[in-house]
Amino acid sequence: MSVAASPSPTPQHRAAGLLTVQVVAPDGVRWSGNARGVTVPSVSGSLGILPRHEPVAAVLAAGVVRVRPATGDPVEVTVTGGFVVVDDDEVSVLADGTVAPGDA
Questions:
Q1: What is the dotted CATH code of the domain comprising 18-99?
Q2: How far apart are CA 38 and CA 40, in angstroms?
Q3: Which of 10, 40, 66, 93 is such that its CA lies 20 to 30 A from the CA of 99?
Q4: Cβ proximity of 66 and 75 under 8 Å
Q5: What is the DSSP string of 17-78?
Q6: CA–CA separation, 21 and 12 (whole Å)
Q7: Which residues contact 2 (CB under 8 A, 6 or more apart)?
Q8: For 65, what's the count of Cα atoms within 13 Å in the CB-facing half-sphere?
């Protein structure tokens, strides 16, 4: 399974109003980089995350994580569950597993 990536996160991301995002599964990093926003499927419903979001930790349901990179096309990663942690414009999506496109 290939790993999608955008340019490496930079210290200037705060000045640009961006998030530093990592989507990680047990078998590797699915996506990492700077983003304008992220939407995750929490067990309480869809959770939208933008820069300056309050710190939060949430349990993920099976569904699609949507990342809007700082540049380029949106990225979607289908997860089987897991956790998301948001703190100080850093978003860590820790997936129990991911589903390859076409396997869903």
A1: 2.60.15.10
A2: 7
A3: 10
A4: yes
A5: T-EEEEEEETTEEEEEEEEEEEEEEETTEEEEE-TTPPPEEEEEPSEEEEEEESSSS-EEEE
A6: 14
A7: none
A8: 34
The one-letter amino acid code at 83 reads F
Please work out, in degrees rounded to the nearest 5, the angle formed at the alpha carbon of residue 30 by the alpha carbons of 43 and 79. 25
pTM, rounded to two decimals? 0.83
Cα separation, 49 vs 39, in Å, equals: 6
Matching residue, tokens 């597993």 = 97
pLDDT tens readout for residues 46-58 = 999 999 999 999 9
37-47 pLDDT per residue, tens: 999 999 999 99
Q: Read off the tokens for 16.
A: 């640009």
Kindly give, in sequence order, each residue whose CB lies less than 8 Å from that of residue 12, ignoring residues fewer than 6 positions away: none
